[in-house]
């Protein structure tokens, strides 16, 4: 099976049959070679650099009802909050001092965050922090909304496609959501000139290897600048409370495969990966990841942005995470880069 890793390393592609074999190759040999090759490719393009993104979780209100997510609208137990414009600016201010040069405003689909509101915040950030990238992760919105926020100064948009297979997508989402619309949003964002991030969960209920291959093929077609993947982690008050979560080994295998398929892509070692294993993010970095997205949200709201159970860093201040991460990144053999960290195209 190691020859498949070498072929992927050389050609950045495999047939569906080969991908299937590699995705399912649960062996230490494959894991080790994938790690070695993925690390080689990331070092070739990005050296030892790890880019930090300051995540500001702006709202836990959400009109959607994705079955896996802890802040889905049907979860009556969820504690809801939204940040004010002033709170968002304070998060950015402390983030800038801590060396963050990308701010990610992420939230549920909250109609309180109108285009006017968002454009005001974006324009203020753009003016105060001209050397920073502004990333949005606010779900599905209209073409016009994406266009206005881009004009106000946003640079990037993260919208995981979640599942490129229609049936799997339908089994993870309520009937009013559609894969076609999700994809349309991603293509709209790209045509508007955003740097785009897509991605999916690993080990979601009913997900098969064929579904994962469909995800990889969709990513080859979309060619996003960033790919966010992390293990599915059950949340206790969702319909998926009793499902099994994604495993560390499969997530790492997919991260290695992604680095070899998309040599220059931005690949975050996600918080969910750090949640399922204490050294999950470090292992991610050693398997091709080059981005970490620590939390800048005010500590009093952090536990409320609970997409899944046992999320890490919900009690830490931004400064504590910054110090902790720097130590972890360096111990893993890499270095924190204080820069916007754009994708090299
Ligand atoms: N486990 C892991 N990831 C999740 N997300 C939502 N719910 C969960 C969960 N239970 C991911 C989705 C979403 C991103 C913000 O968080 O993929 O796009
Ligand atoms: Fe938050 Fe370590 S990254 S405490």
What's the topology here?
Elements (H helix, E strand, L loop, with lengths): L1 H10 L4 H8 L4 H19 L2 E4 L1 E6 L25 H13 L4 E6 L7 H14 L4 E5 L5 H10 L3 E3 L7 H7 L6 H13 L3 E8 L6 H14 L3 E6 L16 H14 L9 H6 L3 H6 L5 E2 L6 H4 L15 H14 L3 E3 L8
Parallel strand pairs: 1-8, 1-9, 2-3, 3-4, 4-5, 5-6, 6-7
Helix pairs in contact: 1-3, 2-9, 3-10, 4-5, 5-6
The site of 5'-deoxyadenosine has 12 residues, from loops.
Number of helical segments with 4 or more residues: 14
* Low-pLDDT regions: none
Q: Summarize the amount of helix as a percent range.
A: 40-55%
Distinct small molecules bound, one entry per kind: 5'-deoxyadenosine, FE2/S2 (inorganic) cluster
Radius of gyration: 19 Å
| Neighbour order of strands in the largest sheet | 2-3-4-5-6-7
